[in-house]
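Lecture notes, continued. The same structure-token format from the folding unit now serves as the input rather than the output. Read the line below as a description of shape only.
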């Protein structure tokens, strides 16, 4: 038991010794590690101090370089500002010097002006004295003249002013006529050149259209079918078409009479279909007339489109194209309206090109200038104003609208092409054979011309010759002088121009002759 306890004690003592030795060995190792760690830490600290010193030196160098650079820039900027200040000071000094010089010059000028003013005042005083003396002499001279002439100064002045006025008026009239004649000569020469070139390039045939259409028949037997029992067929045709049918003794022909060519064309085509079909009765007549009217509307549109394409006009509203087609079946003073509008459009285009304007715009206005003559509904407006209203409604150019409305002077001309449209319209209508003038209107125009000349004092006789193209005025020699003849011719021409409407131009010739008659016995 004791040996076991002893062995246990020995074992425990040996274990304690082992543990103690282990702790001693561990403590020694730990101490070495601590020493190593301290050595490494001191090494790291020394390296860190070295790097910090190096970095500090680098940063100090960079800061010094930056400072030097900033200092140089600052010195440069200060130098530039100094230079600018010096330049500004130099300019200010120069300005001060120039101002001083100007001030000195102004003082000199003021002194000189004062001297001149004093001299002028003295001269004015001398002039006033001389004027007073002159007025006294003039009054004395006027009193002497009044005594010699037996007239007062006012009467003599009035006679002198009247004589001078008459002389100045006659000279002014002669000069005015001379200037007008010279201007007319030059203007007419250029205008004739442009107009002749334009007309030559657009020469077109003209044919007078009548208000009747002759419908030819194969035989007179068909007349009975057209008339119908108790005239019901002919009444139905007249009611459906609005055209008067004249059935007379003219062999194999029926006359269709209407002021509207479109209605006459509908009646002609309807009669042609009815006669070829052979079935002529009121119901059939109404059916054929309505069918013909619809087909003619399509034909009207086709004519308008073809006309616009041939003239090279683009972007026209469909309603305006339809109105252009309707012109084919309208006439004005016997002249076909579509042919007149086409010719006017071509004339306008060429004339605008000759004058350096827009030919396409002028051609467009020339084609549309008479669309007011083919309205869908009757109106109280004139065809020019109605045409302008329609063109504006369908989005036409303001220049075209103004040209349409002003081509008969019913609107103020606001664009350059407006007078061109007016002139070309007159050229197309004034051609020989283009239009028919009613005899009563022609006779009235001739009579008005002669009466206008006879209204002047001293006119003995007046004759309109050459179809109203020339007016010859015979005056009394004892009442009208040669100078008065020139004045009378000018005044009559101006009055005709302002008060009358006429185609082309009218030449006014005043004839004055002195006859001395004696009889030898």
């Amino acid at each position: 038991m004791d040996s076991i306890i002893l062995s246990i004690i020995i074992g425990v003592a040996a274990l304690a010794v082992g543990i103690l030795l282990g702790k001693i060995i561990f403590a020694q190792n730990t101490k070495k590690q601590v020493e190593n760690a301290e050595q490494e830490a001191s090494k790291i600290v020394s390296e860190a101090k070295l790097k910090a010193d190096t970095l500090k030196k680098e940063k100090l160098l960079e800061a010094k370089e930056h400072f030097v650079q900033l200092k140089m820039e600052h010195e440069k900027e200060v130098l530039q500002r100094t230079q600018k200040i010096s330049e500004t000071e130099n300019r200010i000094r120069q300005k001060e010097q120039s101002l001083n010089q100007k001030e000195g010059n102004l003082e000199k000028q003021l002194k000189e002006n004062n001297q001149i003013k004093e001299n002028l005042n003295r001269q004015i005083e001398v002039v006033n004295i001389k004027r007073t003396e002159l007025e006294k002499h003039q009054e004395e001279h006027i009193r002497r003249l009044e005594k010699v002439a037996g007239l007062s100064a006012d009467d003599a002045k009035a006679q002198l002013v009247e004589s001078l006025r008459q002389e100045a008026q006659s000279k002014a009239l002669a000069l005015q006529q001379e200037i007008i004649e010279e201007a007319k000569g030059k203007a007419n020469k250029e205008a004739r050149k442009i107009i002749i070139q334009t007309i030559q390039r657009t020469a077109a045939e003209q044919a007078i259209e009548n208000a009747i259409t002759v419908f030819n028949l194969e035989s007179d037997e068909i007349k009975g079918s057209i008339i119908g029992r108790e005239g019901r067929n002919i009444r139905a045709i007249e009611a459906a078409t609005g055209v008067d049918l004249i059935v007379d003794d003219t062999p194999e022909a029926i006359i269709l009479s209407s002021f509207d060519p479109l209605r006459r064309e509908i009646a002609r085509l309807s009669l042609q279909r009815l006669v070829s079909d052979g079935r002529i009765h009121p119901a059939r007549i109404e059916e054929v007339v309505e069918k013909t009217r619809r087909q003619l509307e399509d034909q009207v549109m086709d004519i308008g489109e073809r006309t616009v394409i041939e003239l090279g006009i683009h972007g026209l509203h469909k309603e305006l194209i339809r109105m252009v087609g309707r012109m084919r079946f309208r006439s004005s003073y016997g002249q076909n309206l579509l042919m007149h509008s086409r010719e006017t459009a071509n004339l306008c285009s060429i004339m605008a090109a000759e004058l350096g304007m827009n030919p396409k715009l002028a051609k467009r206005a020339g084609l549309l200038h008479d669309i007011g003559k083919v309205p869908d509904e009757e109106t109280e407006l004139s065809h020019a104003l109605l045409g302008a209203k329609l063109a504006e409604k369908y989005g036409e150019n303001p220049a075209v609208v103004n040209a349409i409305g002003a081509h008969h002077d019913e609107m103020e001309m606001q664009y350059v092409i407006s007078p061109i449209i007016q002139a070309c319209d007159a050229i197309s209508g004034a051609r020989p054979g283009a239009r028919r003038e009613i005899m009563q209107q022609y006779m009235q125009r001739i009579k008005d011309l002669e009466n206008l000349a006879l209204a002047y004092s001293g006119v003995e006789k007046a004759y309109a010759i050459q179809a109203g193209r020339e007016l010859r005025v015979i005056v009394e020699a004892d009442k009208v002088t040669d100078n008065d003849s020139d004045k009378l011719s000018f005044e009559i021409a101006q009055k005709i121009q302002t008060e009358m409407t006429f185609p082309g131009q009218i030449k006014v010739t005043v004839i004055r002759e002195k006859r001395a008659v004696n009889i030898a016995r």
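Point for the exam: Residues 203-211 have pLDDT under 50 and may be disordered.
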